Amino acid sequence: MKQRIITAVIAAAIFLPIVIFGGWPFIAMVYLIASVALYEALKMKQIKLFSVPGILSLLLLWIFLIPDQYSGFLNQIDYTKLELFFLGVLLFLTYTVITKNRFTFEEVAFSIMSTLYVGLGFYFFIETREANLTYVFYSLFIIWATDSGAYFIGRAIGKHKLWPEISPNKTTEGFFGGIVSALIVAVLFSVFGDMKVPTMILLIATAFLSVFGQVGDLVESALKRHYNVKDSGNILPGHGGMLDRFDSLLFVWPLIHLFHLL
């Protein structure tokens, strides 16, 4: 626990000021975090980052992450992100032929899905920051509240396993405790924050975001269990890897936009 706290304090001291400052330093940080997260995902499938599929995945990720306000150069070369991504898919499939199926269709699918999984979440992280800093802190605090509420309430009164095949330590009581904790944070943001939606709408959305945040955690747990991996990485002592820390938020940031909270 001591190691987790020390790592969390140091990480927050670096992460939060850059988020607040915004601009190119923030975008560069997101590119770095997303690149590490993609590396961790590919490593589970034993796909090396410094290989043809690894580099191709990384390039597609970087294209995917380009913020809307900086994507004008794509118009100048008369390509869209979707067209470039489709080109990447064709190159992946071509590589299966070049390698005579040593790099398989299944590995192509994993590489593309990993790129989308990581890229979609972090792209909307950038877009959320550009739209309204308050919503970045809202997303961070409701997920921290969800995780803390689920952990402490689950330990205190948890008796019914939530999904033992995926994450044996999570309980149903902790699941609902996490939602309640997130709702408390949402009320505080509604009262003191620059939120642009009515309180009731915010509470309903928060409940869904808390649920999907926990689903995001379970998705990564399922991925690690399938590939027999304890942590996605070890870059954050006591916490694991970047995917371990951002798994919930990779679901939450896109949903903030899909729910039209901004």
Structure explained in plain terms:
- By secondary structure, the protein is mainly alpha-helical.
- It has two domains: 1-131, no CATH class; 133-262, no CATH class.
- The protein has helices spanning 2-21, 23-44, 52-64, 72-76, 81-98, 105-131, 133-157, 172-192, 199-226, 242-246, 249-258; strands spanning 161-163, 167-171.
- The chain is globular, with a radius of gyration of 19 Å.
- The model has no long low-confidence stretch (mean pLDDT 92).
SSE blueprint:
Layout: H1 2-21, H2 23-44, H3 52-64, H4 72-76, H5 81-98, H6 105-131, H7 133-157, E1 161-163, E2 167-171, H8 172-192, H9 199-226, H10 242-246, H11 249-258
Antiparallel strand pairs: 1-2
Q: Element order, helices and strands?
A: HHHHHHHEEHHHH
Q: What is the gyration radius calculated from CA atoms?
A: 19 Å
Our count of helices gives 11
Overall body shape: globular
Task: Output the structural class.
Answer: mainly alpha
* Strand order of the biggest β-sheet: 1-2
Q: What's the total number of strands?
A: 2
Quick structural overview:
Helices cover 74% and strands 3% of the residues. The protein has 262 residues and is mainly alpha-helical.
